[in-house]
UniProtKB/TrEMBL annotation:
<feature type="domain" description="FMN-dependent dehydrogenase">
    <location>
        <begin position="176"/>
        <end position="336"/>
    </location>
</feature>
<dbReference type="InterPro" id="IPR011179">
    <property type="entry name" value="IPdP_isomerase"/>
</dbReference>
<keyword id="KW-0285">Flavoprotein</keyword>
<feature type="binding site">
    <location>
        <position position="162"/>
    </location>
    <ligand>
        <name>Mg(2+)</name>
    </ligand>
</feature>
<comment type="function">
    <text>Involved in the biosynthesis of isoprenoids. Catalyzes the 1,3-allylic rearrangement of the homoallylic substrate isopentenyl (IPP) to its allylic isomer, dimethylallyl diphosphate (DMAPP).</text>
</comment>
<dbReference type="InterPro" id="IPR013785">
    <property type="entry name" value="Aldolase_TIM"/>
</dbReference>
<comment type="similarity">
    <text>Belongs to the IPP isomerase type 2 family.</text>
</comment>
<keyword id="KW-0479">Metal-binding</keyword>
<feature type="binding site">
    <location>
        <begin position="97"/>
        <end position="99"/>
    </location>
    <ligand>
        <name>substrate</name>
    </ligand>
</feature>
<feature type="binding site">
    <location>
        <begin position="8"/>
        <end position="9"/>
    </location>
    <ligand>
        <name>substrate</name>
    </ligand>
</feature>
<feature type="binding site">
    <location>
        <begin position="293"/>
        <end position="294"/>
    </location>
    <ligand>
        <name>FMN</name>
    </ligand>
</feature>
<keyword id="KW-0414">Isoprene biosynthesis</keyword>
<feature type="binding site">
    <location>
        <position position="97"/>
    </location>
    <ligand>
        <name>FMN</name>
    </ligand>
</feature>
<feature type="binding site">
    <location>
        <position position="223"/>
    </location>
    <ligand>
        <name>FMN</name>
    </ligand>
</feature>
<feature type="binding site">
    <location>
        <position position="66"/>
    </location>
    <ligand>
        <name>FMN</name>
    </ligand>
</feature>
<keyword id="KW-0521">NADP</keyword>
<keyword id="KW-0288">FMN</keyword>
Amino acid sequence: MGNHHVERKEDHIRIVLDRKSSQSALTTGLETVRFLHNALPDLDLGEIDLSCTLAGRRIAAPVLVSSMTGGPVRTAEINHNIAAACQALGLPFGVGSQRVALDHGGMAGLGPELRRIAPDVPIFGNLGAAQLRGDDAFDMARRAVEMIGADALFIHLNPLQEAIQPEGDRNWRGLFDRIAALAETLGVPVAVKEVGFGLSASLCRRLHEAGVQILDVAGAGGTNWARVEAARATPDRHALGATFADWGIPTAQAIRQARAAVPGATIIGSGGLSSGLDVARAIRLGADIGAIAAGVLKDAIASQGDLEARLSAVVEELRITCFCTGSADLDALRRADLMPDQLPPT
């Protein structure tokens, strides 16, 4: 089983890098959010404050390097590059699913060295919701946090991916109650994220009422995991990818709906973000943090330096957006003027 999981993770990276095989047929909707240009900002660009707090730690900018995946060799390399780059820039990051490392005893870059590399920034662990069914699920969650010194634990929701994956977990009965119980007992914040099809407003509300304080909407418009799984499946299942190529709640709509539904939650906006301007758009729509995954995957594989340069560019794009909207900080950016009729529908 271990080798099979490893091969699947390697397939995921190969297919995600081939955007033609993995991209959603939908757009994120973020492209419809156009800021009103301020030609005379009363600001010093260098003094714009992008800092904020996430999972109890101060971060330099609201840019999360979101969960990525891969087989043991690649996972170690990717996670070490991410940890080092994020520590250098003061940015948070989340690891890919820790299931393989927990089930089969290999660290695969998911050990205590991550916290040694990145002692000062928030680290999010990661387990699939389907892993919460077992009798040892809460112990597994605790070990997932401890093995990397995580500040919070992502529970990812991927029912469509699991339904299309030939070996997927299809019994999701009772998982909401398991997530609620975990949120009460884990000891660090439980964060819930989709993987690219969006969290609805009603689910965000139910999760928040159950004690989940951090919600990553992970909307549609970026990587489509139905297409990814169909691409690696047998030919008779390839058509499923096309059937669900435009499935999901576009990212912009998911962010607005989540913020309206749970004004007190920490909202992470992800799903197809690729620039600092996209992060600014997500924040303007109601997100506290913008998250990028596939958009920096190639850089994370290449080297720490490549990733650090890419993330520095994202932060600089966000800072320039603030400058050209007259926003001295993130609170001001949330109120920045938009071009008329530029908000996406709720």
